[in-house]
From TrEMBL:
The gene is endouc. Its EC number is 4.6.1.-. This is Uridylate-specific endoribonuclease. It comes from Callorhinchus milii. The lineage of its organism: Eukaryota, Metazoa, Chordata, Craniata, Vertebrata. Monomer. CDD domains: XendoU. Belongs to the ENDOU family. One of its GO terms (molecular function) is hydrolase activity. Residues 8-285 form the EndoU domain. Signal peptide: none annotated. It catalyses: ribonucleotidyl-uridine-RNA = a 5'-end dephospho-uridine-RNA + a 3'-end 2',3'-cyclophospho-ribonucleotide-RNA. InterPro entries: ENDOU, EndoU-like, EndoU_C. Its cofactor is Mn(2+). It holds the Pfam family XendoU. SUPFAM superfamilies: EndoU-like (SSF142877).
């Protein structure tokens, strides 16, 4: 695959690389975690829940859980993961304690250099308010405001739930779940079965130290044929990238081609009205090795 440099969003690549360098809470491969990418996943048709297992072992063989517990952004993030009803069409009920947990998480990430740089960048584009309290409320609305995704009664989804927690469509199809911490925790609980890496034909096997993976997995007996996720990055880094892309575009779907560290990525964001519908990275190549 060849890349037309004119298609790459150089401005976004610049700010994303600044955020990458500022991400002090990123976990490092072979130090903070170890993964085993194993075999290349087989083809699974959309809607099918049958997948050949091309990975006999879990994706994550080791994660520094002590660092997860001791790092405020991870600890407050993990506290949110059990607060949601996984099936769309079933209305969510947000308790007062859950609102407090959401706010504690936002307070934690807003203390980081990553989100400070993000606020500065968005201010330079007149896309948010200068007052930190209003910026926090803006983030809360984008990510945590409930809306109706299914055909049930009442609001049943949010951007945060879809992207970071994962949800299902009528109990038959996995939607979202693009976060490595949630993947690891669900895998540890035996809810997720990693099936193998996904790549175009003739692609070399991903490196164990890649920070972005396309993968296939089952979650509570449903199969996601192709998922994609950053690996090891902090919650604030993902919040920053997706928030910036969401606010820069009013399109229903935005797809920005960027260069971040050694990765050629497409950052995809779907808009659900004033809120994030979904967002995820698509790995196009790493170390200048194309995926086809």
């Amino acid at each position: 695959m060849s890349f037309n440099l004119q298609e790459i969003n150089h401005e976004l690549s610049k700010i994303f690389n600044e955020l990458w360098k500022a991400d002090e809470n990123r976990f490092e491969p072979c130090k903070d975690y170890e993964i085993a990418v194993q075999g290349k996943a087989s083809y699974v048709s959309h809607g099918s829940n049958n997948a050949r297992d091309c990975a006999s072992r879990p994706l994550f063989s080791n994660v520094n859980e002590e660092r997860l517990r001791q790092t405020k952004t991870y600890a407050t993030f993990i506290a949110l993961l059990d607060n949601y009803e996984m099936s769309t069409g079933v209305a969510e009920v947000v308790t007062r304690d859950e609102v407090k947990e959401n706010n504690r998480f936002l307070d934690a990430i807003l203390e980081t250099k990553v989100m400070q740089l993000t606020h500065d960048y968005l201010l330079s584009k007149n896309l948010t308010k200068a007052d930190p309290r209003e910026f926090k409320q803006h983030l809360y609305s984008i990510w945590f405001q409930l809306y109706s995704r299914g055909q049930g009664r009442g609001p049943d989804s949010s951007g945060f739930e879809h992207v970071f927690v994962g949800e299902t469509k009528r109990g038959r199809e996995i939607m979202g779940l693009h976060n490595w911490v949630q993947f690891y925790l669900q895998e540890k609980r035996k809810n997720i079965d990693y099936k193998g890496f996904v790549a175009r034909r003739n692609k070399n096997k991903p490196d164990e130290d890649d920070h972005v993976l396309n993968l296939q997995f089952s979650w509570k007996h449903m199969v996601k044929p192709i998922g994609s996720s950053f690996i090891g990055v902090s919650p604030e880094f993902e919040f920053a990238l997706y928030t910036i892309c969401f606010l820069l575009s009013q399109d229903k779907v935005s797809r920005e081609l960027v260069l971040v560290d050694e990765y050629h990525l497409q950052i995809v964001v779907y808009r659900h009205g004033r809120y994030i519908g979904t967002s995820y990275p698509v790995l196009l190549s790493s170390n200048n090795v194309p995926l086809e």
